[in-house]
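Re: the request from the purification team.
They wanted to know what the chain is likely to look like in 3D before they choose a buffer screen. I agreed to run a prediction and write the result into the notebook, where they can find it.
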Amino acid sequence: MEKLKTFLEFVRKNPEALEEIKVFLEALSKDFSENLLIYHLIELAKEKTLPSSTKRFLLEYVAELAEKNLQISEAIKTYNILLKTFPREEYREKLEKLKTFKFLERFRYLLPKYNLSLELLKELYFKALEQEKSIEAILMEELKISKAEILESLKNYHHLPAYDLKVLLSQNKLRRISRVLGVKKHYLEENLCIPFEMENKTFLFVYNPEDIEKIEKIKRILQLPEVNLAVALKEDILEAIQKYYELTFEETSSQIEAVEEDEEVSEEELLDSTIVNLVNSIIEEAYKRRASDIHWESLTGKRGLLVRFRVDGECFEYTTIPEHQKRGCISRIKIMANLDIAERRLPQDGKIKFRTKDGNSFEIRVATIPTIENNEDVVMRILGGIEFRSLEEIDLLPENYQKLKFILDLPYGLILCVGPTGSGKTTTLHACLKYLNKPNKKIWTAEDPVEIVQEGLRQVQVNPKIGLTFARVLRSFLRADPDIIMIGETRDKETAHTLIEASLTGHLVLSTLHTNSAPETVTRLLGMEIDPYNFADSLLGIIAQRLAKRLCPKCKKPYQPTPEEIERLKVEYGTHPVKPLTDDMIEKGKFYEPVGCEFCNYTGFKGRIALHEILVPDEDIKDLIIKKAPANEIRKIALEKGFHTLKQDGILKVLMGETTLKQVLAVTLR
């Protein structure tokens, strides 16, 4: 501050020495912030003892310094003083130009890192106009400034929260406000604003929060008296507006009216184009997002219909449909699935054959369930989203891959794939069938439903309603000269007995079962009164599996685990008599953590990785089966022979950098 005091005293004593004052100022600008310097120079220019030439010099210096540092408001204020005190046309022209480009001031917080100037920003602004883009988009493209840095600058300038709308939408943190849908989309696009509910608050996201009069008018039209303002980028707002309206039409007159609970609805009303397009667009969006299920959940108290998608095993909210469209949507789904529209008291099941606009065809399994307040829920399972994979693509560790190939090459016997619903059993069995599918083999499959179609297989869809059960189809297969048989699921005692019989009469039989682990499968089948001698003789192997979330390959970040994390890894892996988890294995491991990017919808995970345990019984384990030994005894002997549990397999995949320990623990028990 001493230098500044010295300068002020020098000016007061030598007010005419403009050259020396200029040199002094250049030196000061290196040591003091522009804000401090501008403040003291303006205060100095107010002193009546200074000659007018010195006042004008100081004010011109302040205006140029403010303009150079993108403090355009300060520059405008200073030129106003100059114009009033020293009327000149050059000041008037300068003032008009600065007013035109005042909005560029909001990028001044980027100055410390990027060499921005008003001239450069003007040039980029004109380029943005030519390309019909926002200047923020051009800054990101031309100068490689990140969106986060631009939003931070806007936040600091406007003193308002600034959000990446694209990220918030992808993370499903925003909810539409149904009454806003009555306003034309064009109005929101013209005013570059969009309202959403977030964290139990209403936000109006705007591109230009400085036009207070316009914002007040928008709030009145959108019926949002209590609303929080937030800033977002132009392109993000336009994309959000598009998504806001993509599930409905702008013309509210075409929407169906609210229906009283006991009122009968005609099919014609239910097939209103708004409802048809609404349901179709939600199904298409679910398919695009690789969802396995769509949950339509009727909210109590006439709050509408919540739609959730299950992607990679996890549910998230997609949208809420207004109350007046709820009954229409559920009835439309029932019509598509050939269900009784009038029956709302009992559960119903059906199927839909669906074709997207892109020409993709798939089947949807539909289940309706009555809920309180005379409502209904619908769950749709998308059956066409299963990827057809080969044996090399199902994430088997090398040792398990060799084990599976070994049992598949055997001429006859029973191979079981076990795990809960949605654990990838069908994908694994079809990978096995792809390996076995040769011109010299006759392969029959019975499935409910047929989810993957393979050339060369003879595939049958079971239909319990007409008595075409797994057991009946299996018996017919035995008369159709098969080499290999695949039964989609072993549901009952009759099917289990026929499976064993088929495997003992020279057929390779594959099937699935809902059990937790490979050793527990043995006790489960023995509980179905299967002859232990026949079972031990026929069993070739049991594959148990789970699906854990896979780290996104685009954004996963390597990191060094803490000693506590390494200790937790060892504890979870447990002791293994033959293949323990060594310090050397951990040292060589590749540890990654999730980050989140556009590719993975900012979750940090993309797709899933299969965890396996493969039990191939030898003579010792077959003896235990014959003795009907408990599962823990079978597991103990299997471990001594090199067997890996599901959790151990998952931890080895953590060391490979494919997933995280948290994800493995979320899907495994022991």
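For the purification team: The chain has four domains: 2-100, 160-245, 253-382, 391-667.
Please add any questions underneath this entry.
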